[in-house]
Amino acid sequence: MANGRTGCRRGLLCALATLVLALSAVPAFARQAQAPAAANDPPAADPPAASPKNDRIFMVIPNYTTVEVPTAFSPITVKEKFKLGADDAFDPYTFPLAGIVAGIAQARNDDSSWGQGLGGYGKRYAAGLGDTRIGSLMTTGVFPSLLHEDPRYFRKGSGGFWRRSAYAVKRLFVARTDSGGSQFNFSEFGGNAVAGGISLAYHSREERHLSSFANNWGTQITIDFVANQLKEFWPDMRHKIFKR
């Protein structure tokens, strides 16, 4: 159990370190509110009801679920929810990401019964890939479809940095429903909980305990917390860097 608690702390520390590194680039680009549209500007076109385009964050990280300019709300179908989940789960980015996670696990000798060498690395790589894909499908496809929640992230896009950052945190806990209302984000917390439970089935017996589950669950929630911040501010950074 002591090893489980250590793994939990290390996993959360890694996720929090990712948060610090990601957010360190944000304030310089997004402290100021976006300029309001002039009174004589034509109204913005309504966003399509289908999936948003994949405007990759930093040209690398997949970003299938962000609605940058939510001028009108239109719900998406169950098919579209599962497509968003599948696009995110099977994006090419998941392969190098799983490789990095497996390398860290190898260095820390997590799941020690898997051993070292290429065989141990392969098992850790497969487990990391499974964790990522199951989590994406659960939180974006399965749970939103069952609970009639919308898995997309609707940007605030205006206001000061801290107000927008707080909004991004709020969207971690509050989901938009298919009817346009709001409710607790059961898809985020329940979906990641189910994904964490499933992951215990293919990890070694030594890792099948509550601390390991809490580590997986808490790390995924923290990663999604970081992702919301990046989704909110990426268009500002993109405009500063690429002038578009």
Strand arrangement within the widest β-sheet reads: 2-4-5
Main pleated-sheet profile = 3 strands, antiparallel
Model regions low in confidence, pLDDT < 50 over at least 5 residues:
1-51
Helix-strand string: HHEHHHEEHEEHH
- Give the termini distance in whole angstroms: 51 Å
How much helix is in the residues? 55-70%
Can you give a write-up of this model?
- By secondary structure, the chain is mainly α.
- The chain has one domain (2-26, 47-242).
- The chain has eight helices and five strands; from the N terminus they run ααβαααββαββαα.
- A three-stranded antiparallel sheet has the order 2-4-5. The chain has a two-stranded parallel sheet with strand order 1-3.
- α7 (186-202) packs across α8 (210-242).
- The model is unreliable at 1-51 (pLDDT under 50).
Brief sketch in words of this structure:
The chain contains 8 helices and 5 strands, in the order ααβαααββαββαα. By secondary structure, it is mainly α.
Supply database-style keywords:
globular; 244 residues; two-stranded parallel ribbon; single chain; mainly alpha
How is the secondary structure organized here?
Layout: H1 2-23, H2 27-30, E1 66-67, H3 78-89, H4 94-108, H5 117-147, E2 149-150, E3 153-154, H6 161-173, E4 174-177, E5 182-184, H7 186-202, H8 210-242
Helix pairs in contact: 1-8, 3-5, 4-5, 5-7, 6-8, 7-8
